[in-house]
């Protein structure tokens, strides 16, 4: 049986900056984007031997488990986000996307952000500890995460992921992925950014979101600890690489604003 290099599997947690990250990865890796586990299984299964050999990346809004569809080594990567910011972003994204499966519930019910958060798993597992749900088979069986689910999710991130990044530390996360995956220094502009929240978040709404995402808050803290550990192992040159990456992207975005084709020609090699 022929050997293949590790396949990069990107678990795209909704509203964590994943569209931007996927564009970075797919800019250098030959990949596919999948919408569900069923779509992943059928898409990968339909590939011929030569197509499968050339496949380098599979990403999508799917939970941990894509490795079950491939017979080759894999490297998992993902991003987590501060749970309050993620739920706020999720709400405004849903309100402005008529194709989203929660759109009618939000619009017909005239749900405020607070009511949306309080809906929790009754409305969608994406809203209540939805990041734990992405990494815990137990949470998906229960249709709502519990503390055992949190411990399972922590173990999955610790033991099965090559890099766990966070949205709030996006550049550090990308540089870590660049190193681990052997990528060229990437450039990017933010993609699929949702509408800005309307005004500051009131304390009652924040409390409602936090109450429904206690486990996600713990998982997010753990993700940052994993990222800190990985960065320490990468040595003192890591911060210089991050600074260089930020300068490169600052120049790229400035040129991209006025001449996108020229920016692509100059930077995306």
Architecture overview:
56% of the residues lie in helices and 10% in strands. With 269 residues, the chain is α/β, with parallel strands linked by helices. Helix 9 runs parallel beside helix 12 (214-233), helix 10 packs across helix 13 and helix 13 packs antiparallel against helix 14. The chain has a 5-stranded parallel β-sheet with strand order 2-3-1-4-5, with helices on both faces. It has one domain (7-82, 133-193, 213-267): Rossmann fold (3-Layer(aba) Sandwich).
Q: Write down the domain tally.
A: 1
User: Could you say what the CATH architecture is?
Assistant: 3-Layer(aba) Sandwich
- Quickly give the structural class: alpha/beta
Silhouette: globular
End-to-end distance:
33 Å
The share of residues in extended strands comes to: 5-15%
* Quaternary assembly: single chain
User: How would you sum up the major sheet?
Assistant: 5 strands, parallel
What layout of secondary structure does this protein have?
Elements: E1 7-11, H1 18-26, E2 31-34, H2 37-45, H3 49-54, E3 57-60, E4 74-80, H4 83-95, H5 103-108, H6 113-123, H7 130-135, H8 137-142, H9 147-160, E5 161-166, H10 170-181, H11 203-211, H12 214-233, H13 237-258, H14 260-267
Parallel strand pairs: 1-3, 1-4, 2-3, 4-5
Helix pairs in contact: 6-11, 9-12, 10-13, 13-14
How would you describe this structure in keywords?
single chain, 269 residues, Rossmann fold
Describe, in short, the structure shown.
This protein is of the alpha/beta class and 269 residues long. The protein has a single domain (7-82, 133-193, 213-267), classed as Rossmann fold.
């Amino acid at each position: 049986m022929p050997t293949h290099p590790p396949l990069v599997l990107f678990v795209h947690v909704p509203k964590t900056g994943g569209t931007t990250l996927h564009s970075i990865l797919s800019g250098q890796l030959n990949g596919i984007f999948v919408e569900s586990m069923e779509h992943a299984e059928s898409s990968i299964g339909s590939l011929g031997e030569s197509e499968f050999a050339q496949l380098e990346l599979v990403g999508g809004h799917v939970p941990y488990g894509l490795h079950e569809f491939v017979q080759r080594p894999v490297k998992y990567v993902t991003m987590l986000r501060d749970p309050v910011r993620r739920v706020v972003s999720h709400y405004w994204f849903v309100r402005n996307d008529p194709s989203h499966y929660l759109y009618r519930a939000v619009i017909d019910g005239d749900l405020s952000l607070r009511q949306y958060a309080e809906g929790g798993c009754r409305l969608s597992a994406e809203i209540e500890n939805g990041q734990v749900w992405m990494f815990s088979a137990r949470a998906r069986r229960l249709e709502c995460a519990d503390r055992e689910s949190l411990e399972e999710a922590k173990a999955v991130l610790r033991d099965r992921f090559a890099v766990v990044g966070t949205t709030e530390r996006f550049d550090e996360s990308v540089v870590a992925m660049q190193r681990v995956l052997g990528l060229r220094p990437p450039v990017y502009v933010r993609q699929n950014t949702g509408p800005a929240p309307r005004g500051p978040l009131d304390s009652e709404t924040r409390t409602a979101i936090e109450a429904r995402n206690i486990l996600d808050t713990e998982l997010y803290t753990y993700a940052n600890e994993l990222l800190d550990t990985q960065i320490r192992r990468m040595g003192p040159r890591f911060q210089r690489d991050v600074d260089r990456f930020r300068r490169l992207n600052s120049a790229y975005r400035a040129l991209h604003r006025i001449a996108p084709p020229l920016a692509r020609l100059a930077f995306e090699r």
